[in-house]
Design a protein that fits this description.
- This protein is an alpha+beta fold.
- The protein is 48% helix and 14% strand.
- It has 11 helices and 6 strands.
- The longest helix is centred in the C-terminal third of the chain and has 27 residues.
- The two termini are 15 Å apart.
């Protein structure tokens, strides 16, 4: 059985960062240029490029003069370790290797599917559809005080009617995490709050305080601070959100197309789900 080592780690790569860059003589190197031979296995510039492209971003941003020796060391060490293997892979290890290959190839397919999904044209079109062309809606800025019982709420309402400071009472009595900010809920639109809360807010004029009312969270008193009509956010403010959404949609479409075209027969009925946790079946 082959035991898993820790060489494929960021720590191992970092340990080799101080290695000097190997000198290149003769013709300009290509992807096929051999940079090392370990036993009978050649390591090429192409292998180094492929490894570098799959490094975490924090390593990819390092200068070539720093990366070259570290990447070459990694490939040399990995090759030597593979050559030092004794015995064959056991069942668990073969299945892990199959899963890694499947995952790698599936990731390539999804990367190809999502590459063009977030083009500037697609981002602009999505922005126009989701934000720029949307009808303005009224938004509300409010604060509330949340307590457990109606009696508590009515006692606080009397203090407010007598001129007590809303924020101070919220800080003293409110049960949720808005207490520290004086009960402030910030800006929100219709549909973002539970129905009784939304009904109370929309019945108020700016500056008014509601009568106590109940939701599933407890008893509330709400103050409407101000209202405004919503505006489309600048594209740059929502660009990353749009890009991620477009890529997710493209990935899901590719998955749906692949599974739709595939002949799939599931035969897992009757199998105890616990078998994948126990793992004993791999040792049989």
């Amino acid at each position: 059985m082959i035991r898993k080592s820790g060489f494929w780690t960021a720590a191992a790569l970092a340990a080799g960062l101080a290695m000097p860059v190997a000198a290149q003589d003769g013709d300009a190197p290509s992807a096929d240029t051999v940079v090392a031979v370990v036993n009978d296995t050649e390591i090429t510039v192409g292998h180094m490029i492929a490894m570098r492209e799959r490094l975490p971003q924090r390593f990819q941003s390092l200068p070539p003069q720093t990366l070259f020796g570290a990447v070459l060391d990694q490939l040399v060490e990995q090759t030597a370790l593979v050559d030092s293997m004794t015995g064959d892979l056991d069942r668990r290890e073969r299945l892990m290797l199959e899963n890694q290959r499947r995952n790698f190839l599936a990731t390539l397919v999804l990367e190809d599917a999502t590459e063009a999904a977030a083009s500037e044209e697609a981002v602009q079109a999505a922005y126009e559809e989701r934000y720029a062309s949307a009808e303005p809606e009224e938004e509300y800025n409010a604060a509330h005080i949340l307590v457990e019982t109606e009696d508590e709420a009515r006692a606080i309402a009397e203090e407010l009617a007598g001129g007590a400071d809303f924020a101070a009472l919220a800080q003293e009595h409110s049960l949720d995490n808005t207490a520290q900010s004086g009960g402030s809920l910030g800006w929100f639109g219709l549909g973002m709050m539970v129905e009784p809360f939304e009904e109370a807010v929309t019945s108020l004029e700016a500056g008014e305080v509601s009568e106590p009312f109940q939701t599933q969270f407890g008893w509330h008193i709400v103050r409407l601070n101000e209202t405004r009509m919503s505006e489309a956010p600048p594209l740059e403010e929502v660009r990353q959100q749009i890009v991620e959404s477009l890529r997710q949609e493209a990935a899901q479409a590719r998955i749906d197309a692949a599974t739709g075209d595939a002949e799939i027969e599931r035969m897992a009925d009757g199998i105890d789900p616990g078998i994948i946790v126990e793992g004993a079946a791999l040792d049989e």
